[in-house]
Structure formats: structure tokens, C-alpha cells
């Protein structure tokens, strides 16, 4: 059937558009073209031979590169790999012997020799494949494909021979396979379709196909299963209590115990080659610290507690050093190496532009405020050196996510212009315990909306903030909250709003997005056929008549997370009610804007819109 909704790149408006303010200049030392010119390095993996593989996001690709952990130029491995956001991309995988590198390219698993050469596709036997994991012999690979309407695990090899199916059932998705050191079995994650809040740890014997559940409890997520180097223990992260802690269990199902008891969420971890220690990243109030865990005692020591985001830690084979990624509110992401004996840290990559090396970026504050029901809402507050009287509230996407202390070019730019910028971690955010994280179940657009509205009320208590000069801007779920804030607030606390790839009708968005996002939505709200009232309660599409303030709508036409039809539906509702809006779509953008030329256009439109509606006469 022909799709009745026509999607084309376009610009539309109702009412007079926001115009560039001729009386305003960019902040000294910063320009939007400069901030959108970063080529970010990310997703590092260290080989047993001291080589780093990574992804670099360029102008039009997210290609695979390699470099030496001793320091060297990046060497390009892939060509034309599709641009992808870091949260929706994979980490390249080295073979245990360090001779091969595996990664996904154009929807298929490819391998390339460490010594160089053209990437070779090894998954012709399937329409698409992803998530390669090497077997201990550096010849076999476990890959992920979709079969029987579920994600399945197959075993193939470097020649791409026809695979052996490791999983075939349709009770759930099979993820994150990791082979035992002897190669005779694997552990993996089972996401059950009958309990979407549950993730089990499954042991599978390759020769017999026998499977056993090592850990599985109703409504409990256990993930990131890994083997100890000697094969005696299987580790995983579980949210059995309020926090995501590391647990250990023997392959025979005995000896289950909680290793970490720090009261902080473990984000990532890696066993040391000797098996005596675990290198972990822990979430401490939106800052991700790097620490060592003694496997015998469970005691921890902090390797780096600098305010910012440590991620993707890797051990050297001889345990003499580690490599990791780090960024902070004032420093863009780069790779670093730490000597474990001296604790000396060496920067390996240099992504920051020379023009910004000494720029005085603002260090934000951790604050909190009470919401309508007394719940304390954590937030990150950027205070400008000289206020222009206006403020922006930025709710993050997700909702199962968190605004963290990473480098935020948008926040820094608007703060440099004089805006006060606040990012609330509304109820439903991660990092503050299971109860807080699940406080928005069956409650989208209700309690979390109030958290944003009370964020605006908090901003009104700050010195130099004009109460009628507060705007709201967000992407994805943050865009959805922006729409809610403009249409469901009888006090009209926000003077305008910017919604990037947000939705307003949860039921139609559910119907039009891809399967993984339908299931994601059902984690929080259930199935729309069973919980129709919950979906309608959370959908502001019927309340466009309440809009009184202008809105800027931005959406990519390749979006499979929040379908672009969602913005079409919202704009149609605004037209019916004769509301003031501007609407811009981008033909080549997925969920999130990635191409520098489009990102620049988005930022310029946001700046023009917010300056026009929020700033007083003299800026």
C-alpha cells in the first residue's frame, strides 16, 4: 500500500519566522562552525599486541582506525562506513592473538588483518549480521543475526563458512555472547519477550547445544557477562537492589555472590589478564570514575576520580598499563594511557581544535531542586560569567538515560552567550537507583513533565533570570517533554520551545518505529492494545490548542527511533490550531544530527530562534 504520508526535506512555518538579531555578536573566541568541526574518536579496543582499534566520526563517515598504544597517527581501516551515533554503534573487536580485527560495515561483519589489507565480508549467508565476538582460537567468530523474529547467535569462522546456529528459540533476543577460555561454551544475555524488564545470563555448551540459566529473576536486569581468564568464574552486572553491581557465579551455577557493594552503578568493567583484579567504571553523581576492584576481597581503589566521563577501559596484556577514553565539561573526548606503576597519564589523541585549547569553558555545578511531590530532582547547572537574563532548560533523551558530565558543545556555546543552562535528570533517569529510574513507568509526560516545570520554577529563583525569558529545548524524549511542557502547562512557564526528533502521539510513534523501539517503549508503558489509556495520557497531540508560545521543530527523515511522521503529525495539529511554529527536516539524518553541515544548520536555527524569543533588547 502506498504510504499516505509524504516525507521530503523542507522548511515550513506558520507565523513570522525568528530572525537573526543584528545587535548580537557570537561569544568571543567561539563560533558554531568551530564547534561543529570536531572529529570525535571513540569506541576504543586494545589488542594483545598493543594496538588500538577505534571509531572516528568524520564529516560523512564513522570509520574504523588503528593506532599504537605507544602513540602514533591514526591509520584508516574502513572506507565509507555509515555515520552512526556512539550509543547506536559497536566497538571493533580484536582477535585474541591480535592478528585480526572484526567490525560491522554496511550491515555485515567484516574482518581485516592487523598488518593491513582490504576488509573482507564473512557473513554473505545472512541478509545482515552484527556484533562479532572472537573465539579463543582467533579463527571462529560468534555473530548476531535476526531469525524467527528474534536476535540469534551463529558461529562462523574467518573464511565465512556456513554457520552453526547456536540459538534458535523465539522466547527472546540473544545478545552479548562471550566464549569460555577453552572455547567449549559461551555465556550470553537473554532478553525475554514475556518480561521486558528482565535480562538473564545463559550458559550454552557449543557441542551439545545444552543451555542453562545461571541467573534470571523477574523484572531484574543482569547484563555484560564475562569469563574470568581461568574460566572458573562468570561475572555480570545486575540491578538486584537499587544499584547495578558486579556479581560472580561459577559455570556450574554455584557460588553466586555480589562482588561490589559501593552503592554506585557499575557502567563498564574488564578482567585483568591475571584474573586478580577488575578495571571498572562507576557512575558517581553523573561523573564516571575509573577504579580497580580486588576480585578476592571486593575492595576498590580509585584510579582516576576526575570529574568527567571515563569509558571503555582496556588492560595491556602484561598489566603494565591501561588505556581509556575521557571527556569532561571542559575537555572533548580523547584517548589516554595510564602507567599502573607510576599512575602517570599520557594523552594519546588530540581531538580538540588549537583554537579552543585555552578557551575558558564553564565548569557546571551539581544542584537539585524539589518537584511537585517533594521528590528531589538532580540537575546540572551552567552559570554564565555574565548573564543575559535568559535561561534554557534541557531535558535529556531516553528516558532511560542521564545527563552526565561530558563535553556539551551546545551548553557551552549558549552559556558563553550569557544564557543560564540547566539539564535536569528528571524521574526515570539512570544513575540514582532503581526506584528513581522506574518512577516514570506508566507515567510518561506526567511526573517527568512536572520535574521540568519545577525546573523552570527553580530557574526563576536565580538572580538575574527574567521569569518570562526561559525556554525549553530537547531531543528525542527531551523533545517529547518539550512538546508536553508547551501544551500541558497552564502557567506557561516557558517562553518558547525547540523539539528535536520528538513525538507527541505515543501510539502512532509505537506503530511506525522499528521493532527494537517498540519493545523499548513497552518496557515502560506495556503494549498499547492493553494500556491504551496510558498511551493516550502520555500523548499531547490532542492538546495543540493549548499552545501559546512559538516552537521550532527539527527532524531527520532517516530516523527509525522516533519516526519523522511523528513531527509531521505534530505540525499538522499546530496548523489546525493556527499556532506559531517553524519546521525543518533533513533528508540525510537519522535519530540525532550527525553530519557537520546539518548540525551547523540545526545550531544556527536554534540560536536564531532562542535569541529572537528570549533575549531582551540589548542582549
Fold and architecture overview:
With 619 residues, the chain is an alpha+beta fold. It folds into 3 domains: 11-35 and 359-614, Rossmann fold; 40-135, N-terminal domain of TfIIb; 268-352. 16% of the residues lie in helices and 34% in strands. The chain has 10 helices and 37 strands. The strands form 8 sheets. The chain has a 9-stranded mixed β-sheet with strand order 1-37-36-35-34-32-33-31-30, with helices on both faces. A 4-stranded antiparallel β-sheet has the order 2-3-4-5, with no helix packed on it. A hairpin with a 6-residue loop joins strand 18 and strand 19 (234-238). It starts with 10 loop residues before the first strand and ends in a 5-residue tail after the last helix. The model has no long low-confidence stretch (mean pLDDT 96).
In brief:
The chain has 619 residues and is α+β, with helices and mostly antiparallel strands. The chain has ten helices and 37 strands. The chain has three domains: 11-35 and 359-614, Alpha/Beta hydrolase fold, catalytic domain (Rossmann fold, 3-Layer(aba) Sandwich); 40-135, N-terminal domain of TfIIb, CATH 2.20.25; 268-352.
Amino acid at each position: 500500500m502506498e504510504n499516505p504520508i509524504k516525507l521530503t526535506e523542507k522548511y515550513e512555518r506558520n507565523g513570522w519566522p525568528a530572525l537573526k538579531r543584528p545587535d548580537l555578536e557570537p561569544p568571543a573566541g567561539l563560533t558554531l562552525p568551530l564547534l561543529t568541526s570536531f572529529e570525535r574518536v571513540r569506541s576504543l579496543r586494545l589488542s594483545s599486541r598493543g594496538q588500538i582499534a577505534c571509531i572516528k566520526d568524520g564529516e560523512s563517515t564513522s570509520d574504523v582506525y588503528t593506532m599504537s598504544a605507544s602513540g602514533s597517527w591514526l591509520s584508516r581501516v574502513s572506507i565509507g562506513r555509515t555515520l552512526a551515533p556512539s550509543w547506536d554503534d559497536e566497538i571493533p573487536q580484536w582477535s585474541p592473538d591480535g592478528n585480526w580485527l572484526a567490525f560491522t560495515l554496511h550491515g555485515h561483519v567484516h574482518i581485516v588483518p592487523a598488518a593491513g589489507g582490504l576488509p573482507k565480508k564473512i557473513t554473505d549467508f545472512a541478509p545482515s549480521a552484527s556484533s562479532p565476538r572472537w573465539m579463543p582460537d582467533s579463527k571462529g567468530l560468534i555473530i548476531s543475526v535476526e531469525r524467527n523474529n528474534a536476535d540469534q547467535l551463529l558461529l562462523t569462522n574467518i573464511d565465512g563458512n556456513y554457520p552453526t546456529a547456536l540459538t534458535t528459540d523465539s522466547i527472546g533476543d540473544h545478545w552479548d555472547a562471550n566464549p569460555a577460555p577453552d572455547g567449549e561454551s559461551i555465556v550470553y544475555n537473554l532478553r525475554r519477550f514475556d518480561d521486558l524488564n528482565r535480562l538473564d545470563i545463559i550458559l550454552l555448551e557449543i557441542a551439545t547445544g545444552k543451555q542453562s540459566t545461571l541467573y534470571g529473576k523477574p523484572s531484574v536486569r543482569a547484563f555484560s557477562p564475562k569469563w574470568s581468564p581461568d574460566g572458573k568464574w562468570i561475572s555480570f552486572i545486575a540491578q538486584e537492589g537499587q544499584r547495578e553491581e558486579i556479581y560472580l557465579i561459577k559455570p556450574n551455577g554455584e557460588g553466586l555472590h555480589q562482588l561490589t557493594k559501593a552503592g554506585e552503578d557499575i557502567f563498564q568493567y574488564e578482567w585483568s589478564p591475571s584474573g586478580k583484579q577488575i578495571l571498572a567504571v562507576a557512575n558517581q553523581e553523573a561523573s564516571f570514575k575509573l577504579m580497580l576492584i580486588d576480585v578476592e576481597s571486593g575492595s576498590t581503589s580509585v584510579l582516576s576520580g576526575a570529574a568527567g566521563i571515563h569509558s571503555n577501559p582496556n588492560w595491556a596484556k602484561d598489566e603494565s598499563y591501561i588505556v581509556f577514553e575521557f571527556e569532561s565539561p571542559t575537555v572533548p573526548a580523547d584517548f589516554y594511557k595510564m602507567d599502573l606503576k607510576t599512575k602517570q597519564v599520557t594523552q594519546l589523541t588530540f581531538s580538540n581544535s588549537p583554537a579552543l585549547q585555552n578557551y575558558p569553558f564553564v565548569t557546571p555545578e551539581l544542584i537539585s531542586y524539589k518537584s511537585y511531590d517533594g521528590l528531589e530532582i538532580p540537575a546540572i547547572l551552567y552559570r554564565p560569567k555574565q548573564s543575559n537574563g535568559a535561561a534554557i532548560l534541557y531535558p535529556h533523551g531516553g528516558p532511560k538515560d542521564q545527563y552526565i558530565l561530558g563535553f556539551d558543545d551546545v551548553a557551552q556555546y549558549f552559556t558563553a552567550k550569557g544564557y543560564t543552562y540547566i539539564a535536569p535528570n528528571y524521574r526515570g533517569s539512570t544513575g540514582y537507583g532503581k526506584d528513581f529510574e522506574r518512577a516514570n513507568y506508566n507515567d510518561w509526560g506526567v511526573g517527568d513533565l512536572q520535574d521540568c516545570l519545577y525546573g523552570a520554577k527553580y530557574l526563576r529563583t536565580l538572580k538575574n533570570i527574567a521569569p518570562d525569558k526561559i525556554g525549553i529545548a530537547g531531543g528525542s524524549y527531551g523533545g517529547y517533554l518539550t512538546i508536553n511542557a508547551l501544551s500541558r502547562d497552564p502557567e506557561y512557564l516557558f517562553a518558547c520551545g525547540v523539539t528535536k526528533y520528538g513525538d507527541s502521539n505515543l501510539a502512532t510513534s509505537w506503530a511506525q518505529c522499528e521493532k527494537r523501539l517498540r519493545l523499548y517503549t513497552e518496557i515502560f508503558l506495556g503494549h498499547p492494545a492493553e494500556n491504551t489509556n496510558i498511551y493516550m495520557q502520555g500523548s499531547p497531540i490532542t492538546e495543540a490548542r493549548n499552545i501559546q508560545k512559538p516552537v521550532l521543530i527539527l527532524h531527520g527523515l532517516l530516523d527509525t527511533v522516533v519516526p519523522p511522521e511523528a513531527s509531521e503529525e505534530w505540525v499538522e495539529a499546530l496548523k489546525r490550531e493556527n499556532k506559531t511554529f517553524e519546521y525543518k527536516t533533513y533528508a540525510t539524518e537519522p535519530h540525532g544530527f550527525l553530519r557537520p553541515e546539518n548540525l551547523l544548520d540545526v545550531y544556527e536555527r536554534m540560536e536564531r530562534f532562542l535569541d529572537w524569543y528570549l533575549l531582551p533588547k540589548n542582549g
